Amino acid sequence: MTKADIIVGIQWGDEGKGRVVDLYAQDYDVVARFGGGDNAGHQIKVGDVDIALRIVPSGVLNPHVELFVGGGTVINPVGLLEELDRLAAIGVDISRVRISDRAHVVLPYHAARDRANERARGAGAIGTTGRGIGPAYIDKAARTGITFGEFARRESLAEKIRLNLLHHAASLEGENVPSEEDLVGATLDAAQRLAPHIVDGVDYIHEKFARDKRVLIEGAQGSLLDVGYGTYPYVTSSHTIAGGACIGLGIGPGAVGRVIGVVKAYCTRVGAGPFPSELRDERGERLREAGGEFGTVTGRPRRCGWFDAVAGRYAVRLNGLNALALTKLDVLCGFERIGIVTGYRVRGQPVDFSAAGSPELEVVVEEMEGWDEPIGGLRTKAALPQAAQRYIARIEEVLATPVELVSVGRERNELVR
Ligand code: GDP
Ligand code: IMO
Ligand code: MG
C-alpha cells in the first residue's frame, strides 16, 4: 500500500496551504480534505485562473486528481453547490468531487447560533468566521447533527431540521433564520443535487489505498487553531493537526507517510487571541500590504508579525513534521532588518508556547539582515540573495526541520527548490 502524505498549516491558518497543495497534487491521484468547513479560504492562482476554495480540495486545478471531502468536515450544502457551480463555470470537471456520508451538514441556524454566541461573549469574542462551524461541531458531539448520509432519507431529514429549530429556538430568537418550510425546501433541493457526490467515505478512501493510489491529505486552518492544542479558547472547533487526518478520514496512523508543514515566512492571525510576535506598528502594516493579508472568507485585515520560532517548534512537535514548505518569502523583500521571535519570557524567566496568552509575556527577537532584490523570478536556492539564504537556513535550524520548497509568489511556478 502506498502511504498517504499530509500537508498542514503550522501557524494560525492562511499559510498558503492551497497554493502548496496545488503544487504537490501533481504527483498524487487523490487529494482528501479532512476537517473544518467553509471557514477555510484557499486562494490558488494558475495562469489566468485565480480561485478561492472553501470546501473543494486544493488539488482541483490538476485535472487528473480525484477530490475527496472526508467525514471530519462540516459542510454548508448550499455554499458547496455555489462553489461547485463557480468551478464548473470555468471549465473544471466537478464530477471528481466526492463527499463522505459521515461529513456533517451546516445549515443557516448554525451560522445564526455562531453570531449569537459571539455576541454573548462580548469583549471575549473569538472573532469566528461566522459560518456556523462551531455550532455544527457542537451538534455533532451532542448527537443532534445531520450527516450527509442522511441526505438521501427525505423524511428523516425534514424531521431532524424541525427538531433542531425547536431545540435551539431560544438562541435563534431575533436572528435572521429562514422559516422551517423554506429551510427544509432549500435543504432537500441541495440534497438532491449533491446526491451523486455522496459516497460511503470509509469505503472510498480504503478502496483508494487498496488500489495503491497516491493520496495527499490536505489540512485546513492551522495547528495553532486546533481545538485541543491551539491557543484555546481562541481556536476553531476541529482538530487541525496531522493527527486529525486519521480521525477525519477514518484511517489508521500506519496509513500515513510523510507530514509536510506549510509555514509562512512571517506570521498572521485573523480574529482574536494570543499572537506574541504581532507587530502593531508600520512594519505590521507593511507586511499586511505587501502580503495582501486580508481574509479570503471575511475580508478582515489579518494581524501580522514576525516569524515565531517558539510557536513553530510547538507545531513541529504536534504534527511530527518531516519537512517544511516555506511560503511568501518574497513578501519580506525590502525590509532592512527581519525579526524572528526565538524565545518567550515572563518576569525574566524563559517560558514555552503554553504561556503565549500571558499578559506579562515578553518576546526575544533576533534580528537578521534583510535584502532588497525582488526574488519572485528566482528558481534555485543558490540564486537567492545571501541574506534570504541565511533566513531560510535559520528557520530550518530553529525548527530542526528541512525546508524542501520555498514559494516566492502566487503562481504555481514561482518557487525555489
Ligand atoms: P491557505 O488558507 O493556507 O490556503 O492560504 P490563503 O489562500 O488563505 O492565503 C495565502 C495567500 O497568499 C493567497 O492569496 C495565496 O495566493 C498567496 N500566496 C501563497 N504563496 C505565496 C507566495 O509565496 N508569495 C506571495 N506573494 N503570495 C503567496
Ligand atoms: P484556512 O484554511 C485563518 C479562525 C477564525 C477565528 C477562529 C474560529 O484558510 O487557513 P471559526 O469560524 O472556525 O469558528 O473561527 O479560527 N479561522 C481561520 N483563520 N484561516 C482559516 O482557514 C481559518 N479558519 C478559522 O478567524 O479566529
Ligand atoms: Mg486561508
What does this structure look like?
Helix 3 (108-121) crosses helix 4 (133-142). This protein has twelve helices and 20 strands. The chain is an alpha/beta fold and 417 residues long. Helix content is 31%, strand content 21%. The mean pLDDT is 96. The chain folds into three domains: 4-100 and 198-260, Adenylosuccinate Synthetase, Chain A, domain 1; 104-195, Adenylosuccinate Synthetase, subunit A, domain 2 (Orthogonal Bundle); 263-416, Adenylosuccinate Synthetase, Chain A, domain 3 (Alpha-Beta Complex), CATH 3.90.170. It binds guanosine-5'-diphosphate (GDP), 6-O-phosphoryl inosine monophosphate (IMO) and magnesium ion (MG). Guanosine-5'-diphosphate binds at residues 9, 13-19, 41-43, 45, 292, 296, 327-328, 330-331, 407-410.
Query: How does the overall form come out from the CA principal axes?
Result: globular
Helix vs. strand class: alpha/beta
Proportion in β-strands: 15-25%
Number of strands: 20
Helix content: 25-40%
Query: Which cofactors or ions or other ligands sit in this model?
Result: guanosine-5'-diphosphate, 6-O-phosphoryl inosine monophosphate, magnesium ion
| Tally of individual domains | 3
Tell me the Rg in angstroms: 21 Å
Biggest sheet strand line-up? 9-7-5-2-10-1-11-15-19-20
Low-confidence stretches: none
Distance between the termini: 28 Å
Main sheet makeup: 10 strands, mixed
Rounded mean pLDDT score? 96
Question: So how many helices?
Answer: 12
Architecture (CATH level 2) name of the largest domain: 3-Layer(aba) Sandwich
Highest CATH level, the class of the largest domain: Alpha Beta
**Topology-level CATH name of the largest domain:** Adenylosuccinate Synthetase, Chain A, domain 1
